[in-house]
Design brief:
14 helices, 5-stranded antiparallel beta sheet, 16 strands, 3 domains, alpha+beta, Aminoglycoside 3'-phosphotransferase, Chain: A, domain 2
Length: 467
């Protein structure tokens, strides 16, 4: 797996207690789990790999549900070669007694090892930890994403002619291939970077061709392909001030969508650079406004009721994670539910974050468009403002600067949409900040209790006139 910088110190923040999952006290403790994984993970080759660090990076936990999904990143070293890498490992714990062990026995009987590419088979693909009643899955084994193993084994070589295409077919040949996992959500999907080292047969010139592969659990990738093709056609025709990451192809048997690399710099990086980001934010605001007013071939709708389900689910999670915030969160979610009214539907990205927007000069490119639907258009600017003011991925950005950036974006956005859209903006921001607070907990960010409390406080400030 790709090398990446891990935090110098993992979070030691407390974790919520849950009588249905008593093992969470141990499973959420990075230091204890480091010892557990050192003792339990078995190297397939018989080598003595050293696990140096364990970092929780995504937990899907909610009180009084049937199970919890806990993802960790392990820093692994091969002492014989000095090579080190990051290894994703998932623990699944169930409320029903014996369920984790039952699944482990069922999966072990099927023996998935022959299906995993040799270069990815470091540890036994699964294990069972009796003292935690935990089923462990080692990436790339995922019982609900069997196509992931096929993609990592080179089944996407059929895409190479498209990556090497040019005015003279067959002129370029692939010499070396690399697949790097970039993002992974257990049972839901993965994003991989696919790099080809290519050479011109006539001149001998070398060149790198790169794309990104999104591996899905279902057929959502086919829907995203159709949407991206329509959006890309609009952009080529010059009818929009924004672009989208260009689709290359969808491979249905692998449930995998290949995408071009986005041009430009992520808005997150622009905000962190410390120089003047005002021009970039204004360009983003105009692009989001245009997207929300575009005529797109969409049929799926996300209603106000759906939005409130999202907000209330996040509110319940935050109350469980931080009981001391319960009164504030209850009041906020009630204000959002009572104050918002249904709006005429328009296209919304529904997952606007600073790392999902790229800027090149004044051209803006959106990525990760799997969640695009028809809904209240003000949800998009509110979602982005919530991520900026809560400084998600922006720890180095001072809080007052983050707020200034959010205000600048909002002012520019509302200068390019109907005036009435701003009426419910504060409530949308409050709801989005509750969702962001829940996301901070799920990602197990360092100092998550402090960051969750700050997001809730920002939501309270934003909605102060409605409480």
């Amino acid at each position: 797996m790709r090398k990446q910088a891990l935090p110098a110190a993992v979070s030691v923040d407390g974790f919520p207690a849950d009588p249905d999952f008593p093992q969470l006290e141990t499973a959420s403790d990075a230091r204890l789990m480091l010892q557990v994984f050192r003792q339990r993970l078995k190297a397939v080759s018989g080598k003595a790999y050293r696990i140096e660090e364990c970092v929780p990076f995504r937990f899907r936990c909610r009180q009084s549900t049937s199970r919890c999904v806990l993802q960790y990143t392990l820093r692994v070293v091969d002492p014989s070669s000095g090579r080190s890498w990051d290894q994703w490992v998932t623990g699944l714990v169930y409320a029903a007694p014996g369920e984790a062990e039952r699944l482990w026995r069922e999966l072990r009987a099927a023996d998935p090892r022959p299906q995993i590419p040799e270069q990815w088979l470091v540890f036994e693909p699964m294990d069972f930890i009796p003292e935690l009643q935990m089923l462990v899955q080692v990436f790339p084994f995922d019982r609900k994403l069997p196509n992931l193993r096929l993609v990592l084994d080179g089944a996407v070589h059929q895409l190479e002619p498209l990556l090497l295409a040019g005015p003279e077919p067959g002129r370029w040949r692939a010499e070396e291939r690399t697949i790097e996992p970039m993002r992974y959500r257990t049972e839901l999907g993965a994003a991989l970077r696919y790099t080809l080292q290519a050479r011109d047969r006539l001149t001998g010139k070398g060149e790198i061709r790169r794309c990104y592969l999104k591996v899905y659990r279902n057929e959502r990738g086919a829907q995203t392909l159709r949407l991206l093709q329509a959006l890309a056609d609009n952009a080529r025709a010059g009818r929009a001030p924004y672009d989208v990451v260009r689709p290359i192809a969808y491979v249905p048997e692998l449930r995998t969508l290949a995408l071009e690399e986005a041009r430009g710099t992520a808005l997150q990086q622009i905000l962190l650079r410390g120089d003047d980001w005002s021009a970039a934010l204004r360009a983003v605001a105009r692009a989001v406004a245009a997207f929300n007013q575009a005529d797109l071939p969409l049929t799926e709708r996300h209603s106000l009721a759906d939005q409130l389900v999202d907000v209330n689910r996040a509110a319940s999670l935050v109350q469980w994670a931080c009981p001391e915030l319960r009164a504030q969160v209850v009041a906020l979610s009630a204000a959002v539910g009572d104050g918002l009214t249904e709006a005429p539907p328009a296209p919304i990205h529904r997952d606007l974050k600073t790392d999902h927007i790229f800027v090149s000069d004044d051209r803006v490119c959106f990525i990760d468009l799997d969640s695009v639907v028809l809904g209240d258009p003000v949800r998009d600017p509110a979602h982005l403002v919530a991520h900026i003011t809560a400084r998600v991925g922006l720890d180095a950005l001072p809080a007052d600067e983050a707020r200034r950036a959010a205000d600048l974006f909002a002012d520019e956005y509302f200068a390019h949409v109907p005036a009435g859209w701003r009426h419910q903006f504060a409530l949308h921001c409050a709801g989005a900040l509750i969702e962001v607070a829940g996301g901070i907990f799920k990602r197990q960010e360092p100092r998550w209790p402090e960051k969750v409390a700050a997001a809730v406080a920002e939501a309270h400030r934003t909605a102060s006139g409605t409480l």
